[in-house]
C-alpha cells in the first residue's frame, strides 16, 4: 500500500512543469556577480532577476561562466546587492524580445522597451520581436533598391545612397554628427526612422529630440536612449533593441532609416562586458568578442527578403583623437557600404555640415546614378582636389593667375562649390535638385 502511494506521488511530482528556479549571489567583483545554485540551468544570454537587500529585483544577464558558476551583469546599479541575495530565473522566458508595434512611432524608450518620454504607457504587442537573430541569408536577401533622397545636398550628390545601403559617419567629438543625423531623420525619403542614442550625454537628449529632430521628425521616429551613465549592458542593449525595432518595421514592408550614434560607444560597452567577464584585452584593450559581435549587428541592416522592406542604416563612428585608423573605425569601414567623413578643420572654417567630400565615398554610386551624373561628380571632385592641392600657395599669394588652367578653374568654381556643400539645418534637398545645382555650378567653367 505504501509503495503504491509513493509511486503515485512520484508520478504526480514528475508531471509538474517547473517554470522557475532560485539561486543566490556568491560574490560581487567589479561589474559582475557570481551566481550559484542554478547549475545546469543557465546559458549565455539568459535573464536573471537579482534581489537587493531592500527586496527590489534588478534584471540581469548571464555573460559568462567561470569554474561552472555563472558570471552575471545587471541592467541597473549594483547598490544593495551582496553575497546571499536571491537570484531567480524563469525557464519559460528565455527567449528575449521586445513587444514593438506601429503605435511606438513618436515615442522615446529605454533599451528594455520602457517609455521614458512621460507620454503614458506604450501600446505593447503580443508579438515579441526577437532581440538576437542572424542576419538575412546572404543568398536570398534582396539587392539594394533605388537611390534614396537623404535630404542633404553634399551626400545626395557625392555619396549617393541606395535603399538598403549601410553607411558609416566618421567624426571626432563636437564636429556636428548629431545635427547631421537630425537633418537625415527629418529629410530622408523613408517611411520610418529608428534612432539609437548609445552612450549619449544626458543633457543633450531633450535638445536633440525637441530642437534637432522636432515634432515633424519625431512623428515618424522611434528613439531608443541609453545615456553615458547607464550600465554597459543597457548601452549595448540600446543598439540591439534599435536594430530589432527597425527589423519589425522592415518585416511590415516599410522603408526604414536606422540612425545609430554611436557604434564606438556600443563597442566600448562590449569591451566593459567582455573584460568584466574575464576576456583578455587584445587590440587597444578591446577583447576579441567585440570584433565578433560588431559584424553580427551591422549585417542585420540592409535589404530584407523579397517580400520585406529595407533598412537603410547610418552608423556614426566616434574616432578617438581624430584617428580614422583606430580599431573600431577600421573594422566598421571594412564592413559597411561606404563612409562619410566629417572634418574638424572644415567645421572650424564655418561650413556645416563639415563633410570632407574628397575622403567620403559610397560603394553603391555606380549602380544608381546616370552616366552624366557620375561624370559630373568626378569632375567636381577633381576641381576640389586641385584647389586643395594648391590651397597653401593660393592663400600665400604665391600662385599667379594664368599659370595653370585647372587651378584657375578651381579658384573660380570653389566659392560656388563651398556654398553648395553648406546647408542650413532646416533646409531640405533631393537628389535631382542636388545634381541640377551642381550642374549649374560646373557650367560656370565653360
TrEMBL record:
PROSITE patterns documented for this protein: ATPASE_ALPHA_BETA
Domain of life: Bacteria
Span of domain AAA+ ATPase: 163-347
One Gene Ontology biological process: protein secretion by the type III secretion system
EC numbers, comma separated: 7.1.2.2
Subcellular location, record wording: Cytoplasm
Pfam families in alphabetical order: ATP-synt_ab (PF00006), ATP-synt_ab_N (PF02874), T3SS_ATPase_C (PF18269)
PANTHER family in alphabetical order: ATP SYNTHASE, SPI-1 TYPE 3 SECRETION SYSTEM ATPASE
The family this protein is said to belong to: Belongs to the ATPase alpha/beta chains family.
Protein name: Flagellum-specific ATP synthase
Species per Swiss-Prot/TrEMBL record: Gluconobacter wancherniae NBRC 103581
Amino acid at each position: 500500500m505504501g509503495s503504491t502511494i509513493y509511486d503515485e506521488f512520484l508520478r504526480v511530482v514528475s508531471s509538474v512543469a517547473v517554470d522557475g528556479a532560485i539561486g543566490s549571489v556568491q560574490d560581487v567583483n567589479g561589474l559582475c556577480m557570481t551566481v550559484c545554485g542554478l547549475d545546469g540551468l543557465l546559458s549565455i544570454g539568459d535573464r536573471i532577476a537579482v534581489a537587493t537587500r531592500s527586496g527590489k529585483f534588478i534584471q540581469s544577464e548571464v555573460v559568462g561562466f567561470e569554474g561552472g558558476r555563472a558570471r552575471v551583469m545587471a541592467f541597473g546599479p549594483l547598490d544593495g546587492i551582496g553575497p546571499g541575495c536571491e537570484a531567480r530565473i524563469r525557464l519559460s522566458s528565455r527567449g528575449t524580445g521586445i513587444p514593438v508595434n506601429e503605435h511606438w512611432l513618436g515615442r522615446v524608450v529605454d533599451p528594455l522597451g520602457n517609455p521614458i518620454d512621460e507620454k503614458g504607457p506604450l501600446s505593447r504587442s503580443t508579438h515579441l520581436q526577437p532581440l538576437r537573430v542572424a542576419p538575412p541569408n546572404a543568398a536570398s536577401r534582396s539587392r539594394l533598391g533605388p537611390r534614396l533622397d537623404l535630404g542633404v545636398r553634399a551626400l545626395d550628390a557625392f555619396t549617393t545612397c541606395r535603399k538598403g545601403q549601410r553607411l558609416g559617419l566618421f567624426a571626432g567629438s563636437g564636429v556636428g554628427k548629431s545635427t547631421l543625423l537630425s537633418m537625415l531623420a527629418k529629410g530622408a525619403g523613408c517611411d520610418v526612422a529608428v534612432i539609437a542614442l548609445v552612450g549619449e550625454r544626458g543633457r543633450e537628449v531633450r535638445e536633440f529630440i525637441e530642437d534637432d529632430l522636432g515634432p515633424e521628425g519625431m512623428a515618424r521616429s522611434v528613439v531608443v536612449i541609453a545615456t553615458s551613465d547607464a550600465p554597459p549592458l543597457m548601452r549595448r542593449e540600446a543598439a540591439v533593441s534599435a536594430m530589432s525595432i527597425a527589423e519589425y518595421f522592415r518585416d511590415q514592408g516599410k522603408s526604414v532609416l536606422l540612425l545609430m550614434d554611436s557604434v564606438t560607444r556600443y563597442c566600448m560597452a562590449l569591451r566593459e562586458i567582455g573584460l568584466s567577464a574575464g576576456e583578455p584585452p587584445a587590440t587597444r584593450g578591446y577583447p576579441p568578442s567585440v570584433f565578433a559581435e560588431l559584424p553580427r549587428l551591422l549585417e542585420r541592416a540592409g535589404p530584407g527578403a523579397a517580400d520585406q522592406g529595407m533598412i537603410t542604416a547610418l552608423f556614426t563612428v566616434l574616432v578617438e583623437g581624430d584617428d580614422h585608423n583606430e580599431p573600431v573605425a577600421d573594422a566598421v569601414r571594412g564592413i559597411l557600404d561606404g563612409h562619410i567623413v566629417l572634418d574638424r578643420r572644415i567645421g572650424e572654417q564655418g561650413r556645416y555640415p563639415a563633410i570632407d567630400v574628397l575622403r567620403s565615398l559610397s560603394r553603391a554610386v555606380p549602380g544608381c546614378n546616370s552616366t552624366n551624373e557620375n561624370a559630373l561628380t568626378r569632375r567636381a571632385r577633381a576641381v576640389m582636389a586641385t584647389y586643395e592641392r594648391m590651397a597653401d600657395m593660393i592663400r600665400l599669394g604665391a600662385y599667379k593667375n594664368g599659370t595653370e588652367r585647372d587651378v584657375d578653374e578651381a579658384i573660380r568654381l570653389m566659392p560656388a562649390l563651398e556654398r553648395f556643400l553648406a546647408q542650413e539645418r532646416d533646409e531640405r534637398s533631393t537628389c535631382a535638385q542636388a545634381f541640377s545645382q551642381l550642374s549649374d555650378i560646373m557650367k560656370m567653367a565653360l
